[in-house]
Amino acid sequence: TSEQIEHLHRRFKQLSRDQLTIRKENFDSIPDLEFNPIRGKIVHAFFDKRNLRQESDGLADEINFEDFLTIMSYFRPIEMNMDEEQLDRFRKEKLKFLFHMYDSDHDGKITLQEYRNVVEELLSGNPHLEKESARSIADGAMLEAASICVGQMGPDQVYEGITFEDFLKMWQGIDIETKMHVRFLNMETIAHCY
């Protein structure tokens, strides 16, 4: 709605300090992101050209308000008047954004190493969990992904990684629409920083 766009524009101006673009360092002032273990991946996703719906690959150095709206559109809630086709497209857009966060080398697959990196980052705040345990968790999850996506594999088969189609299968039945949201856009939060 125009009211939501106005709210996002005020938030954009706060983050950019009244500049026409936002750079990665502008996200340093967001308290809700400060202690998030995958903070780097979240910020990275805002500048990922795939998420900005650009033809090229890689990262943008800065984003303007239109780019910011594009990224924020991935986090909007479902609308009551959406038909099944719109809901499916909406869900796929959200999952594509999430997939890009994991696929850090932009090759269209989430490899075991990429998955390990995310799991290690997520669990890094737990002082009781060693790196090897985090790796075991990632390895187990990757095996489960392989069994869901490929089925029974032979002993000489190697699972190359999770494709987007595999990713869709893995998220089937999970309500991504309510799980994927952004709390750091709260206007009051940033006011406490100054």
TrEMBL record:
Keywords: Calcium, Cell membrane, Cell projection, Cytoplasm, Differentiation, Lipoprotein, Membrane, Metal-binding, Myristate, Nucleus, Protein kinase inhibitor
Alphabetized GO MF terms: calcium ion binding; protein kinase inhibitor activity
One cellular-component annotation, GO: nucleus
Principal localisation: other
Listed InterPro entries: CHP3, EF-hand-dom_pair, EF_Hand_1_Ca_BS, EF_hand_dom
Domain EF-hand, first and last residues per copy: 90-125
Pfam families membership: EF-hand_1
GO biological process: cell differentiation
Domain of life: Eukaryota
SMART domains in the cross-refs: EFh
Membrane-topology annotation of the record: Lipid-anchor
Family: Belongs to the calcineurin regulatory subunit family. CHP subfamily.
Protein's name in the database: Calcineurin B homologous protein 3
Origin species: Heliornis fulica
